[in-house]
Amino acid sequence: MSNIFGDAKTRLSEVFRRIDLSDDVEQRLAHPRLTLVVNIPLRMDDGSLRVLQGYRVQYNDIRGPTKGGIRFHPDVNADEVTSLAFWMTIKCAIAGLPYGGAKGGVAVDPKTLSKLELERLSRGYIRAIADVIGPDRDIPAPDVYTNSTIMGWMADEYYKIVRKKVPGVITGKPVHLGGSLGRESATGQGALFVLNRWVERHNLKPQNLRVAVQGFGNAGAHFASLANQAGYHIVAVSDSRGAVYAEQNLDPDLLMAQKRENLAISKMMYCNSSVCESAEYRIITNQELLELDVDVLALAALENQVTGQNVDRIQARHILELANGPIDSKSDEVLHQRGITVLPDVLANAGGVTVSYFEWLQNRSGLYWELEEVSRRLKKTMDRESDHVFDLVEELGISLRTAAYLHGVERIVGAIQQQGTREYFSED
Ligand code: GLU
Predict the structure, then answer these.
(1) Are the beta carbons of 212 and 294 closer than 8 angstroms?
(2) For residue range 354-383, what is the model confidence (pLDDT) as tens digits?
(3) Final residue of a domain: which of 319, 348, 377?
(4) What phi and psi, each to the nearest 5 degrees, are found at residue 238?
(5) Would the pLDDT of 34 be above 50?
């Protein structure tokens, strides 16, 4: 039985030690407000029926409607979805968005489904949770192994149920179905803005930094491509089937094009024919990628990738968390002691939900923004919130993660206190 949620909450205890808090706050943040477990009947192409378990957890809605993605993955369970919903609560507060946090998922391996089965599942999931979502209530989005096409089907199913078009019910939709320009690359772009800010502040130069990227899904692939364009050296990338390492740069755009054709990273060509001969690359395991001697390790796969099993062998100087919860709390402490910087998930991957918020604003106003407008506003948000977190680190001598949580929790606490706590109500 996994206990990711218990582990996730230990990150708060350090924050609670540093701020004088009412009991009310600790109690409000200790439990999700709603956990919905659903069983979704799925008609398979061969006529048989499968029943799949799905979840939607709304963690806390004090700052606004709850917000968070939906994942389709065989390991999805209530404990994991609860942690992810908790992280969304903190993340939305850190990014200063008027949202609470939620998450959903279905325990299924989507790679085993046909396209029609996947569409039926997406629609079935929305029918099962339709009563608890809505543009002013709870707003889903993509997450691990879900994408804009799936969001388009889900939004369409919701419109049929409520018999009107309410595109603000789901974000991460395809652009022609009410999505925002720049949403697809937003998580990778946001993480790069955070990394750039950190690099600038420490007088480092992208041209001198070697980067390994674990995970080549939406977040990892866009990050690798954008970081490459910004001058960083991408020397290793992986997907769930394997990894590749090059002394020289890899070409993330070429890899992305090949990945679209559904090739595993370890079966791809890593360079254009013009430079192929000179490029030295080798196939390595995912584990070896994590342990490479690089400047930046970008973790863009799943949770619990750095644990007691491998933390002592991590050699990277800086870790950028694009996935949610890729380092367990004990290993986080070890990395901090070893002086390895961790740019934490709740800040580093907040670009995705920030552009989701922009999509929601556009859906509600009916006015659609140009890509420059989306990018300018995303950069402004990521720079502002990164600076705030980095300042706290310098002022208080705490880790980046504790500083990020402190920043988010302060906003949540403000909201809880303004509704009145024990101290307020027990006054004479
Ligand atoms: N799934 C993404 C995350 O974990 C995006 C959520 C959203 O856009 O609502 O941040």
Answers:
(1) yes
(2) 999 999 999 999 999 999 999 999 999 999
(3) 348
(4) -140, 160
(5) yes
Residue 419: Cβ-neighbour burial (10 angstroms; 0-12, 13-18, 19+): exposed
The whole-model pTM stands at: 0.94
Tens-place pLDDT, residues 226-273: 999 999 999 999 988 888 999 878 889 888 887 777 666 666 665 554
Query: What residues contact 333, with CB distance under 8 A and at least 6 apart?
Result: none
How are beta strands 318-321 and 341-343 bridged, if at all? parallel
State in Å: Cα 270 to ligand 1 middle.
30
Distance from residue 353's CA to the centre of ligand 1 (Å): 5
Which residue range(s) make up the domain with 229?
186-348
Predicted confidence at residue 330, as pLDDT, reads 93
What residues flank ligand 1, with Cβ below 6 Å?
Answer: 67-69, 141, 143, 171-172, 324, 349, 352-353, 356
Q: When comparing pLDDT for 13 and 124, which is higher?
A: 124
CATH of the domain at 136: 3.40.50.10860
Ligand 1 centre distance from Cα of residue 339 (Å): 29
